[in-house]
Specification:
The complex is a heterodimer. By secondary structure, chain A is an alpha/beta fold. Chain A has seven helices and ten strands. Chain B contains ten helices and no strands. In chain B, α2 runs antiparallel to α3 and α7 crosses α8. The chains are: A alpha/beta, B mainly alpha.
């Protein structure tokens, strides 16, 4: 799915070679500041690499239109982005951005259930706790139904039990629907439990890669 | 209609009593603003005297080149003033967009107003061209300054939301839509508000001036209505041009956000 060759981005990332397989759960581990988030941003084409090449489905990222790519490879940042409005607005805005048709409240409730957020759709999204906001934004990207999910620490604001439940339901969804999940996590426990593939970034380079 | 009362020097000087009262007040209260008050009163006096003589010269020596030169000076001053007024640092491309929007927006409004609405003759008549251009350029300058501040601040403070929208597949236009709309709103609102209060809360300066100089209030009002609509049109056009071109300077050709932290 993703193939990286001699990719360099400033002094932040320097990857000799890396393959991220399709329809699998891949976890990226590493200390903060090691370049994990930068890698996701490169895959989402929010930034462009200085050297080397990244291929998505055998096509160079340079040749793919950024907006078109992002509608297929959606990224979720670590700190949840809440737009003004209620929970419904915040779920639907993703579809609006991706120019997809809006969905019914039933579908929205189903997505909220998937991320274990039992809240009224009319509730002001700003009133949610950090953990709830994170789950809401996760629900937003699930609703988009992209081919690839790039998730940057999607459970950083959750306690360990909730983290396990959420990631478990997320991985189930991904497996059932033949999606690809690339997830940055600080937790080796999460990586060991859920990932098909894992690699660690240390000081901008990959030091450890392999199937779990 | 009565003749206009020409102010004598002593009458004009007596108006400076207001400045003296203000100076006494700030001195007693210990507000250290004496220097600013004096300088601003002095600048206002000198600038207006100078403009008065320049206008007299221009009206007596009617020449299309002079009229064009005055408009160019006004535009340059207005654009420079916008750059100076904005607290945040403006990028080079954004400065270029500000200048283009000001020139296109104000000049097209001025030309439309003078040639279609008022229908002046000769086309360069400075008695109409200069004051009307001044009002249109001045108001557009204020509008666009507010728009620039709101757009630049919005793009910086809401960088996270803009980038999150891009991550979800939004085009730069969609991602910046809310900030762009807010910028337009804050730029246009003072003009709309001033229209609402006009005639009830205050009598506008141009109209007051015309009435004082002996022109029928009805004629003065006709001019005032037309100029207000002209100002609204120019402010809107200038700001629309600016925000529609300006937000693009925050993105590159790859739909990536290019704002430094």
């Amino acid at each position: 799915m993703f193939l990286l060759k001699e990719v360099k981005y400033k002094n932040i990332l320097n990857i000799k070679a890396l393959t991220i397989p399709e329809n699998k759960v891949t976890c990226i581990l590493g200390e903060s500041g090691s370049g994990k988030s930068t890698l996701l941003r490169l895959l989402n084409k929010l930034i462009s690499y200085d050297r080397g090449e990244i291929f998505y489905n055998n096509q160079s990222l340079k040749e793919i239109d950024s907006v078109k790519l992002r509608r297929s490879v959606v990224m979720l940042p670590q700190s949840p982005a809440i737009f003004s409005g209620n929970i419904r607005d915040n779920l639907l805005i993703g579809l609006k951005f991706a120019e997809k048709p809006p969905v019914s409240d039933d579908r929205l409730h189903a997505v909220l259930k998937l991320v274990h957020l039992d809240e009224d759709l009319n509730k002001d999204a700003e009133k949610l706790s950090e953990g709830e906001k994170q789950r809401l934004t996760l629900g937003r990207v699930l609703l988009l139904d992209p081919h690839v999910f790039l998730l940057d620490e999607p459970s950083s604001s959750l306690d360990e039990d909730t983290e396990h439940i959420i990631i478990s339901s997320l991985v189930d969804y991904v497996k059932k629907n033949n999606k690809t999940l690339i997830m940055v996590t600080h937790s080796k426990k999460v990586a060991n439990h859920f990932a098909d593939n894992t690699f660690e970034i240390k000081k901008a380079t990959i030091i450890n890669e392999g199937e779990v | 209609m009565k003749d206009v009362i020409n102010l004598q020097i002593w009458q004009m000087a007596s108006a400076y009593v207001f400045i003296v009262v203000l100076l006494i007040f700030v001195r007693i209260r210990g507000i250290s603003r004496e220097k600013e008050i004096l300088i601003s009163a002095l600048r206002m006096t000198l600038q207006l005297i100078l403009v008065g003589y320049i206008l007299v010269y221009l009206f007596e020596n009617i020449n299309p080149l002079y009229t064009i030169l005055v408009i160019i000076i006004m535009e340059i001053f207005a654009i420079y003033n916008i750059f100076k007024r904005t607290k945040t640092k403006l990028s080079k491309p954004l400065k270029k967009i500000i200048a283009i929007s000001m020139l296109l927006g104000t000049l097209s409004s001025i030309l439309y107003f003078l040639f279609i609405v008022v229908n002046i003759s000769p086309w360069y008549d400075p008695r109409y061209f200069i004051p009307i251009s001044g009002m249109i350029i001045g108001n557009s300058m204020t509008g666009i300054s507010l728009g620039v501040t709101r757009l630049v601040d919005g793009m910086h403070t809401q960088k996270h939301l803009v980038e999150s929208a891009l991550m979800l597949g939004a085009t730069p236009r969609m991602a910046a839509k809310k900030i762009v709309n807010n910028a337009f709103d804050s730029a246009i609102l003072p003009t709309i508000n001033s229209m609402v209060g006009m005639g009830i809360v205050f009598l506008p300066g141009m109209m007051t001036g015309q009435i004082l100089s002996g022109i029928s209030p009805i004629t003065a009002i006709e001019y005032q209505i037309a100029i207000m609509l002209g100002i609204l049109g120019s402010v809107s056009l200038t700001v629309i041009l600016f925000i529609n071109l300006g937000y693009k300077t925050f993105f590159n050709g790859k739909s990536q956000l290019v704002i430094g932290d």
